[in-house]
Structures are given as C-alpha cells and as structure tokens.
Write a structure and sequence with these properties.
six-stranded mixed beta sheet; five-stranded parallel beta sheet; 15 strands; 9 helices
Length: 269
C-alpha cells in the first residue's frame, strides 16, 4: 500500500528562530528551563506562545489565565493580522534596540512588546463589540506594565516602545507603521470634548522620552520629536521638533529616524 506523503512544515522563520534561541537559553541557564519550556517549547506555533504569555501576565483573581488564553487563541484564529503585527514588532525591537540580542527576549522579558500585544488583543475585542472585555485588558495592562493604551486607539505594525513605562495613548490616537517611542510618552487630548481629540502619528516617527503630543494634530512621516518636548501643533514630515512648546529645529537627520534611533540634533540649525 502506498504511504501518504508527509505534509510540508509550515515556514515561520521568526518562530523557528525563537525556538532555537529557547534551546540555547536552557543550555546556558538551566534554572530558567521551566519558564522557557512553558513559554516557548511547549507550543507548536508562535500564536499559542504569545497567547500563553499575555494570559499569564494579565491573569488575576478577577479573570483566570484559562479564560484569557482562550480569548487570545480565538482572536488569533479569527484575525491572523494580529500575530503578523506581533512578528513585525518583534523584528523591529531586535533591529532597533541595542539591548535586544535575541528574538526570544521581547517575548519573555520586554514589557513594551508584551503591552503592545495585549493592546492588540484588546483592540480586536473592541472592534468586535466586546468593549467591557477590552476595558478589562486595558486596565490590567496599565496595572501590570504601566502602559495605558485605549483599546479604540489604532496602531500600525513594527512598533517599538522602549522601556515602556508611563506611556499613555488616548482613545482617538492613530500611530502609523514603524514608529519608535521611549518611556513616559503621552499621546493625549487637550480637554474633555468627546470627539476626535488625539494625535495622528505618521509612519516612521521617532518620539523621545517624556515627550507629550497633545490634541488632534498630525505628526508627519519620518519626523523626530525630541525628549521632553510638548507638541501642540502639526509637525511637517521629516522634521525635528523640540522644546516647550515644540518648534521646528531642523531636518529629521536621516530618512528613517525611528529605525536609526538617533535622538541627537544640531543646536545651530
């Protein structure tokens, strides 16, 4: 009798790399073997590992890990773009963060990556009309990671939030693809009006630590916002702004500031 041909293995280079790094991590540090097996090697697919990690971090006495994991798994099955965006975020962190030397690090240890993936789950639930569950996830992300992203906010892929402490992103904010920001960034409103009141951040923007971008304004693609700045007006594409209130102080310095992560600018411009 003719034997059936074995199915081809699904190609997923990011997940394959993570599993290889997991094996190496156990060899170099056996004491984390249980964590690595539970978080990575126990799972056949990246989506399952991601759902496990998010549910483990967000579980509480009010909501079990099992319920959260089933919720995440259902979301990844319904919307494959969630896990594709997570892969893009992983690669972005690996490429841009000099403290990241392996793809496994953000998945297991970096709260910026974990917070953004939990937000993505909450946003999916929000778009499905499950708003109370989305609010619960927002609450737990804020409590666990110190990152408060409204589930209605829209964020692209290839996002890096470095250090990710005290980050606030409001309800009507929009963040484009390949954006990098550091800790204590606020994308907020300027009053209590209930309408489109938060910033729109273009693709490839770099936002420095402690910067506040307030109101329904546009920040053009591949621009830079210096650390500690307060931005109250539109920013043209490929410019650097700094100060309180922020003003244009020069060009962006390169074509992809969010990738180079170069925060320095010429004070003489």
């Amino acid at each position: 009798m003719r034997q059936p041909k074995p199915a081809l293995t699904e190609l997923d280079p990011v997940w394959h790399r993570i599993r290889q790094e997991a094996e190496d991590a156990i060899v170099s540090e056996p004491l984390i073997g249980g964590l690595v097996h539970a978080g990575v090697l126990h799972h056949a697919r990246f989506e399952a590992a991601l759902g496990y990690r998010i549910s483990l971090k967000l579980a509480s006495a009010e909501m079990s890990e099992q319920i959260l994991r089933e919720t995440a798994n259902a979301a990844y099955a319904a919307d494959p773009a969630l896990a594709l965006a997570a892969r893009a975020d992983l690669v972005a962190i690996y490429d841009r963060d000099p403290a990241c030397h392996r793809l496994i690090q953000p998945l297991l240890f970096f709260k910026g990556f974990q917070a953004v993936q939990a937000y993505r789950l909450g946003h999916h639930l929000w778009t499905q009309g499950r708003r109370d569950m989305a609010y619960f996830i927002q609450m737990r992300v804020s409590e666990v990671f110190g990152v408060d992203i409204h589930p209605a906010a829209r964020m692209g892929q290839g996002i890096m939030i470095d250090h990710a402490h005290s980050v606030v992103i409001g309800e009507t904010a929009v963040v484009g693809d390949n954006v990098s920001m550091l800790h204590s960034v606020t994308l907020g409103g300027t009053g209590k009006e209930d309408d489109d009141r938060h910033p729109k951040i273009g693709n490839g923007v770099l936002i420095g630590a402690g910067a506040k971008v307030l109101g329904n304004i546009k920040v053009g693609h591949c621009s830079r916002i210096a650390a500690g700045s307060v931005v109250l007006d539109d920013v043209p594409p490929m410019k650097t702004v700094a100060g309180v209130p922020a003003r244009i102080v020069g060009e962006a310095g390169c074509s992809q500031p969010a990738v180079t992560m170069d925060h320095l600018f010429d004070h003489d411009q």
